[in-house]
Structure formats: structure tokens, C-alpha cells
Amino acid sequence: MTTAPALPTADAPVKASVDVRLKAVSDAAQPLPVGQLLAWGDSHADPEVQDQAARARAALAGLRKRHAADQELTAITTETEQLEKRLAELRAREAELAPAKPKTRRKPAAYPAAEVRAWAKENGVDCPPVGRVPKTVVDAWREATGTAA
């Protein structure tokens, strides 16, 4: 067991470098709950301690808000995954039960598209260079060339 050094008496000379250290709080002491610690800080005489308590209170409020948001996001993610799984099951079952849709094919154009486009270009008629030729262009080409539909 260690003993504290004897304090100098009035007769004893005082050393120039006195090392006074506080003993650390023993590990056996239970830490104060956060609420009690904040109440102690709020009622403390030192404004710096009061300021620390206020900052700690604000930090805890932010942590509580973030914790609640994270919990809600986790619940939403879990529910979303469950709903997506259920939707995939329903779509698979729907595909099993639904009759097969016949594949439809467009019937080929009843006119030579390249020839109609060339005629439109020569005659200054607006015609897209790709895709279906507009009916108005085809009708104008038929009328000009005397081609039957």
C-alpha cells in the first residue's frame, strides 16, 4: 500500500518543484448515467462545464435522430426486399398461368422504300432517311408515278 508524502510543516523548507497529482478515480466506481451527468453539468458553477453539458446534450439529440432514421431505413429496406421477393413470385406465377401471346410481325411495306425516298429527295419532299416512310409521302409518290396501291 502506498502512502501519501508528508505535507511540509511550517518549520520544514518547501521544495521548489512540488509534484501534486490527483489520484485517478478508481475503476470500481460506477460511471454516472448520461442523464445524471448532464444534470450535474447543467447545475455546475463553472460555465465551461455548463457549455460542455449543452454541447453533449445537442450531440446526443443528433445521435438519437440519426439512430431513429437508421432504424427506419433498415425497416424500409427489409420490407422492400420482402415485397420485391413476393412480387417476383407473383409475376412468375402469372407467367405460368397466362396464355402465350402470339408474336406479331409487321407486314412488309407495299412500296419500294428506297425508290420512294429517292423520289422524295429529287422532288424536295421531306422524308426521314430511316424507318417507315410517312403515308403522305407514299401517297404523293404513287400519285406522281401512277403506281397503284
UniProtKB/TrEMBL annotation:
Q: Which residues form a coiled coil?
A: 66-93
Asked if the Swiss-Prot or TrEMBL record annotates the protein with the keyword Nucleotide-binding, the reply is no
Highest rank taxon of the organism: Bacteria
Domain Lsr2 DNA-binding, which positions? 111-144
Q: Name one Pfam family in it.
A: Lsr2_DNA-bd
- Tell me which UniProt keywords the record has, alphabetically: Coiled coil, DNA-binding
Q: What is this protein called?
A: Histone-like nucleoid-structuring protein Lsr2
What InterPro entries does UniProt report for this protein, alphabetically? E3-bd_dom_sf, Lsr2_DNA-bd
